[in-house]
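Can't paste images in this forum, so I'm doing it all in text. The chain is below; anyone willing to post the predicted structure tokens underneath?
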Amino acid sequence: MKRRTALMALGALATGSGAVATSASISGTADSSSDITVVVEEELEVKAGKAFNDDGSVKSSYQNQYVPFPSNNEFFGNQSSPSTDPLKDISRSDAPVATVSPRNTTVNDSLKLKVALSIENTTDTFTFEDILTIENNGGDAKDVGIMYDRDYGQYGDDVIVPGDFETELSQHDVQHIYQFRTDDPGNAGQMRISPDPSRGSDDPTESRSVDGGSSIQVDLEIDLTTLTLNTVLGTATLDPKDISGTA
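Text version of the structure:
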């Protein structure tokens, strides 16, 4: 397959022995992600963020980022089926756009999250604000962060893991393009709680403590900018918009 004609990523938002798995994809035009799958510790609950109402509709101040969950049933259909067009009602000009299933009916393992992107858009970075809520219903604080587990295929079938930084669709693409962030209580900005390709690890860059009885909001930042890393062999460049490569 060509290097970046389709990017299927599966990550895990983990705390202790529990994990929230999320998937995403990008293509040369616009494409949608696989479903989010959630496995968490008993005391944690992961659901749609505060950008959404309980029924899956979008709050007015977030309507430039999201579509209501029920607005396009095929967006959540079986993408392997030739009769399903997940972008039936979503044009390239609409992208980037996302949606999350209603929290009044779906949490944890029944939660679904979708993202549609276009690498032909002029915007190289975009943030889906308050896309997820992580709630700690227990009495003790839990450290939460995004991780990826390559041993369980959590990057998706189309990603080569481990893969070459410059020439292959690899874990580096996934980590760079899909960045989960949340407010940093110790500083004025945000912390990145998903992996950073410069660290050479599938583990979270940082973790965020969630107190018992409290919740945090998680943003999903899309980054299509070029990334250059220093390696033992010199510099290497990752261009998410490069769809060249060998078939």
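The chain has one domain: 6-238. Residues 171-177 form the longest helix (7 residues).
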